[in-house]
């Protein structure tokens, strides 16, 4: 194991996380915070925020960087959208982030269930902004259309890493398909903010990062998050390096120079970390001309 | 009253956790909200904050030892309930 640098120290206060953790258990919900063993869980739960993970705990894909369990998933729970909406209301969230496990076993990949979740959230949280972080739905535009029709404020799909690494670390996904999804959403619904994220530390070169940022600029992604890959266990993809905070800032500047509107890039950034702040900043800068 | 310090559940999987460092010595006072010890998991180093103010009376785990959620690692004498 590489020695952890000082910037990977995080605070954890059990009393402060208890309210959110108990609510999640009471309402029989899942969060990606817990399932992915997110290092920011202490901070986010203490601030009374969480990212809900719908459609079960089990994913149909087995990406080598991810801590979510890959196995045959459970049947969808038709009451889940209401429970997520209620939890968001109880927590008083002003910005709700919902993600999902990939459900290649379902005809629409779970897009309909995600749309229902957005609708339930709107009903119970009329002033909240809603961000969804979804799978590629295997590039099925009819599935993507279902989510678009429910009008989330932010449509996020993570490209996760440069093209070359994608083939081995993310074998069931496809780099070009992920870009095509982001492109399709922006062309179909320009008023919805598009967002993607990727990790550093898997062995990518500066050239590969540059190409990835060029590709994201081409599909006009509104928000990009860049964070440190943290190897969940020894059986996951090997961590090759810790990227310094200064290097993260350099990549942020490169991304901005390439024309990407808003970039969050520090070691502990995760795709939904400080998502509310990102959306508020983008809107304030009026980077999306149709808003 | 005596208050057990118990390792919180930081992870959901099988990966191990190590008590990397004590940030207070036995006999020292720790304030509620102040970091008391560090637990290193595969991903990060968690600085675990005391939830009550008190004097660190005894520690039962050495730096570098593996720990599990729920394990009692120390006791503090606290005037808080």
List the helices and strands and how they pair.
The complex is a heterodimer of chains A (291) and B (81).
Chain A: E1 9-12, H1 14-26, H2 32-35, H3 41-46, E2 51-54, H4 80-91, E3 95-100, H5 111-124, E4 129-133, H6 141-149, E5 154-156, H7 163-169, H8 175-188, E6 193-200, H9 206-218, E7 223-228, H10 245-257, E8 262-265, H11 275-284
Parallel strand pairs in A: 2-3, 3-4, 4-5, 5-6, 6-7, 7-8
Helix pairs in contact in A: 4-5, 5-6, 6-8
Chain B: E1 2-6, E2 17-22, E3 29-30, E4 35-40, E5 45-49, E6 54-59, E7 66-67, E8 72-77
Antiparallel strand pairs in B: 1-8, 2-4, 2-7, 3-6, 4-5, 6-8
Structural summary, described in words:
The complex is a heterodimer of chains A (291) and B (81). Chain A has 291 residues and is an alpha/beta fold. Chain A has one domain: Alpha-Beta Barrel (TIM Barrel), CATH 3.20.20.70. In chain A, 40% of the residues lie in helices and 14% in strands. In chain A, strands 2-3-4-5-6-7-8 form a seven-stranded parallel sheet, sandwiched between helices. In chain A, helix 6 links the parallel strand 4 and strand 5. Chain A is globular, with a radius of gyration of 18 Å. The model of chain A has no long low-confidence stretch (mean pLDDT 91). Chain B is mostly beta strands. Chain B has a single domain, classed as RNA polymerase II/Efflux pump adaptor protein, barrel-sandwich hybrid domain (OB fold (Dihydrolipoamide Acetyltransferase, E2P)), CATH 2.40.50. Chain B is 0% helix and 47% strand. Chain B has no helices and eight strands. In chain B, the strands form two sheets. A four-stranded antiparallel sheet of chain B has the order 1-8-6-3, with no helix packed on it. Chain B has a four-stranded antiparallel sheet with strand order 5-4-2-7, with no helix packed on it. In chain B, a hairpin with a 4-residue loop joins strand 4 and strand 5. Chain B is elongated, with a radius of gyration of 12 Å. The mean pLDDT of chain B is 90. Strand 1 of chain A pairs parallel with strand 5 of chain B, so a sheet runs across the interface.
């Amino acid at each position: 194991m590489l020695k952890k640098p000082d910037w990977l120290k995080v605070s954890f206060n059990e009393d402060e996380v208890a309210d959110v953790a108990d609510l999640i258990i009471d309402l029989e919900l899942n969060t990606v915070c817990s399932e992915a063993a997110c290092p920011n869980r202490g901070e986010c739960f203490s601030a009374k925020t969480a990212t809900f993970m719908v459609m079960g705990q089990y994913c149909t894909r087995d990406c080598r960087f991810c801590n979510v369990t890959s196995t045959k998933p459970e049947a969808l729970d038709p009451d889940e959208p209401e429970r997520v909406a209620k939890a968001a209301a109880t927590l008083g969230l002003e910005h709700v982030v919902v993600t999902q496990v990939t459900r290649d076993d379902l005809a629409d990949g779970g897009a309909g269930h995600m749309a229902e979740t957005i609708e339930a959230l709107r009903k119970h949280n009329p002033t909240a902004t809603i961000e969804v972080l979804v799978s590629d739905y295997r590039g099925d535009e009819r599935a993507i259309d279902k989510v678009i029709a429910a009008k989330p404020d932010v449509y996020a799909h993570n490209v996760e890493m440069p093209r070359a690494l994608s083939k081995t670390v993310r074998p069931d996904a496809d780099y070009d398909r992920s870009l095509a999804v982001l492109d399709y959403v922006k062309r179909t619904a320009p008023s919805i903010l598009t967002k993607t994220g990727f990790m550093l530390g898997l062995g990518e070169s500066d050239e590969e990062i540059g190409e990835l940022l060029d590709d994201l600029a081409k599909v006009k992604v509104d928000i990009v998050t860049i964070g440190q890959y943290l190897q969940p266990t020894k059986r996951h993809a090997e961590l090759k390096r810790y990227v310094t905070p200064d290097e993260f800032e350099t990549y942020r500047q490169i991304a901005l120079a390439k024309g990407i509107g808003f970039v969050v890039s520090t070691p502990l950034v995760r795709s939904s970390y400080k998502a509310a702040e990102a959306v508020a900043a983008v809107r304030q800068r009026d980077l999306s001309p149709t808003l | 009253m005596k208050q057990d310090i118990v390792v919180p559940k930081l992870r959901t999987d099988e990966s191990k956790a190590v008590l990397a460092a004590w940030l207070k010595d036995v006999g020292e006072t720790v304030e509620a909200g102040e970091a008391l010890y560090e637990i290193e998991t595969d991903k990060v180093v968690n600085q675990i904050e005391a939830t009550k103010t008190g004097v660190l009376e005894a520690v039962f785990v050495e730096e570098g030892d593996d720990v599990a959620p729920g394990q009692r690692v120390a006791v503090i004498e606290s005037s808080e309930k």
